[in-house]
Amino acid sequence: MKVNVHAVNFTVDKKLVDFVQERMDKLEKYYDRVVSSDVFMKVEKTSEKENKIVEIKINVPGDDFLVKKQCKSFEEAVEQAAESLERLLVKRKEKLRTHI
């Protein structure tokens, strides 16, 4: 799957990009027709500790899914967003099966 990582207001390191790629590749076992995904990472300038925002948009034929999570670390936010996407993809797959 093609994963585009976009860092807003900071530079992203290779380790984080590899983590995101690896986690996004795991989504293909839930729904194998994912075309591409865009991962937007932002750092909010606030005094709160949970200032890391991750938005993941994935493209599947006929639909786009967008999940947004805010956490203390990017890894935690990516993990939570990916879990939400897993549920969405499973739901989508089940919906398609009922229409066949």
Automatic annotation (TrEMBL):
<protein>
    <submittedName>
        <fullName>Ribosome-associated translation inhibitor RaiA</fullName>
    </submittedName>
</protein>
<dbReference type="Pfam" id="PF02482">
    <property type="entry name" value="Ribosomal_S30AE"/>
</dbReference>
<dbReference type="InterPro" id="IPR003489">
    <property type="entry name" value="RHF/RaiA"/>
</dbReference>
